[in-house]
Design brief:
Two copies of one chain form a homodimer. By secondary structure, chain A is an alpha/beta fold. Chain A is built from twelve helices and 13 strands. At the A-B interface, α1, α3, α4 and α9 of A face α1, α3, α4 and α9 of B.
Amino acid sequence: MINGHGDDIYGCKRKIISNFSSNIYGRQDFSALHDHLCSCIHSIHAYPEPDAASLVELLAKKNDIQTANILVTNGAVEAIYLIAQAFRAKKSSIIIPAFSEYEDACRIHEHQLSFASSLSQTDKEAELIWLCNPNNPDGNVYHKSYLDTFISEHPDIFFIIDQSYEAFTDKQYTFTVRESLAYKNVILLHSMTKSYAIPGLRLGYITACNELTDKISAFRIPWAVNQLAIEAGKYLLKEGKPAFDPETYLAETKHLMTALNAIDGLTVLPASTHFFLCKLIRGKASDLKQYLIDQHGILIRDASNFRGLDASFFRIATQSREENDQLVKAIKEWI
Amino acid sequence: MINGHGDDIYGCKRKIISNFSSNIYGRQDFSALHDHLCSCIHSIHAYPEPDAASLVELLAKKNDIQTANILVTNGAVEAIYLIAQAFRAKKSSIIIPAFSEYEDACRIHEHQLSFASSLSQTDKEAELIWLCNPNNPDGNVYHKSYLDTFISEHPDIFFIIDQSYEAFTDKQYTFTVRESLAYKNVILLHSMTKSYAIPGLRLGYITACNELTDKISAFRIPWAVNQLAIEAGKYLLKEGKPAFDPETYLAETKHLMTALNAIDGLTVLPASTHFFLCKLIRGKASDLKQYLIDQHGILIRDASNFRGLDASFFRIATQSREENDQLVKAIKEWI
């Protein structure tokens, strides 16, 4: 799906002041990263390493695994398409509501698709299960211990677990890469885009056992990851500072969820990360979105095009206290 | 093919002083472009336009065509794979020697492959013909008038013409985009990587009639082109300065070809662009390559892994006069 995602500022006529529409937290001080990228800007005039090898090495060290267990990709989105391609025409079950690219990638590569609202309800004949943990768009999570049991009980199914939001939730929910490598049937997706708020550079990676990375690697194209993304990834891994303080951020999320849930005519769905779904009792999210753009320069994610949701849903990613308060006020006004 | 391309500086133990191994001419003054990119470095913290729409608009204006005739891609390499995917399992004929990615992309998408050393020798049953004009690695060209006739006589074959090096040859050889749109069976590939010496950013584009761009577009992934590549592309198109002076550069190429051809034990193949093939009468290109790295910090492209060539071939892309003279001297030494 080329259009219809969040962060669609480019489509807005009015200047956007507050952007709640993408699950990126970009409030950190990035000046050191910017200085670093400008200091190596001349590197745009040579080809990148075809497989981002030097970044792979740093990721291997950081995760205490072998380089053969890692494939760096042009954003997590490229990873999704490569996996769908490597498992062409298989039976895939997708846990919904879900990021639309799993379905699109599976359709392009002729998978037989089914959809389930939870792991326990997936098609018994599925060969692949796609889930996002924590899940986009609803911020839902599976406990790692539950996943452990479920995966062990289904050794013939390949589990593609998108952990793009692993930095934004409690560690009890997500696998470490080392933990996941105990399984021969688990592929983890990671997003440096999300963890480090660099979606403009496009940087993600796959981790899995050698057999699976070999299988997927056969479909890669050279130089898929640009040099400045490689430079940024290496810098951020070496610098080692967390991109933000998850505890403070998740506390702010709770505060915002409570304030929104107190509005008559709005229900906030439970979530275990920094973004969450809201459901309008009356009216359409697309109308609210347009009102917020026109009257307040606020951008939200109309979530009606997620499979399993309808026109009443929108998604919010927590921002600063001041912006969050402004959002609550503006939504009250509209309702 | 992930590894085995040129510009493999990252694989060299010794510092490379002169790089003849990639077909990029990077001797221009890039300071204005660098300043521009650093001034918009904050843009890495938002998603790019999913389809690079604003760059597509500028390209449409520049080429005097509709935006629907253009797809911007993550380098010309992504374009090659998208086209092979859109024409999955067709009969493809590739003019060799050729950039290896045509073959790799066709194999991944299960084309029936044949190879020919010229257009007139292609398989009569081919549904697609892939050619590069001017051709990598040998710098060979087809005259536009010859292509015109051949394409008109074969309306049922789709021609994928890679014009990545269009900026580096005489205009009588290559199609303008408008000229190519007269055909319903021609897809042109363009490389801003090559024209503007920005391979680290990854930026290419496809032009074709609407029916063909629609067909290919169905396989695109969102945000494939990173924001700084989009920014650079827009800046370079607006700035409008030629990245270099083709006449001077091609004259320097002739000078270098003549000097190399005068070496006993070496044959230079004719070419109509800034890069060309050399053939060793005795010895292997891989040995010469290693000698030049170790003794002189010079990198050349061992061309033995191009289909149709053998261990005696290497490729040279012209650099500055001083470097070219140094190369001639070093090769003489080795021979």
